Amino acid sequence: MKKLLMTTALTALVAGPVAAQEIEEFRIGVLGGENAQDRLNSMACYQEKAEALLGVPVRIFTPADYDGVIQGLLGGSLDMAWLGASGYAKLYLSDPDVVEPVMVKTNTDGSYGYYSVGFARADSGIESIEDLEGRQFAFGDPNSTSGYLIPSIEIPSTYDVTMESGDFFGEVVFVGGHEQTIVAVANGSVDAGVTWADGLGEWSEGYNSGALRKASDAGLVDMNEMVEIWKSNPIPEGPIVLATNLPERVKLDVTTLTASLPYMDPDCAYSFFAGEALGVQPINHDAYTSIIEARRSKM
């Protein structure tokens, strides 16, 4: 598979910017989860490579929340995004024809799953969900898979609690995204929170990839001061989606550029994929049917 993706990537990259004849610009939406400038910085190298390949301006949009990207795709003002599985489910349930999932990030072990991870300060005395009785529990965004959907289903079913403030948890709050959740727990603003990680590598480094790894790399958190208190069942990594109405040549160019990143520019790949990753592999709608049904059940 890696050889196939690499061959296809090189073929497309050598072919040159034919796409400029078909589109005037290419617009990428980046989900919330960290501040807008950090999101722009993470995408800068990809933006530069995409502009050189497509021959048109590539614009990066960083809405304040997940729904901003979803609405941008629904309204036709965005051409590409890396969605969470729950975000894709909401998009599909709103309009099944507006985008197509084409790629998924592949972990260093070849899988494309990840986890919702509950965490707290190591000095808080919190070691499990049971220890959160009467305390604050923070979530990122209502449209986040790991930041809300999955824990809101798995935690109540496992611990026989609800996610209503004042029932078991003292207060259930949304703080805006993964980075905000990590910072809020680290500085003691909330007692515990959830975020996403690939679950591979060392906890002390924030695992190999995910929000904890990005926050650790950025110096926002010392993972030795944090403790894991809960981990979900494996979640299918969200898809990179493209607008269905894009010219096929543009879809091919963007797909193969993304597939080529680990070979062309490992540092750019590390930035784009939020940590260490093998690259991407093809994905389609069928991988997300269970998440769509979970999302439907919450509507």
TrEMBL record:
SUPFAM superfamilies: Periplasmic binding protein-like II (SSF53850)
InterPro entries: PhnD, Phosphnate-bd
A Pfam short name: Phosphonate-bd
Single Gene Ontology BP annotation: organic phosphonate transport
Keywords per UniProt: Signal
Position of the signal peptide: 1-20
Cellular component terms (Gene Ontology): ATP-binding cassette (ABC) transporter complex
Transmembrane domains' residue ranges: none
Family in the record: Belongs to the phosphate/phosphite/phosphonate binding protein family.
Protein name, entry field: Phosphonate ABC transporter substrate-binding protein
Source species: Spiribacter salilacus
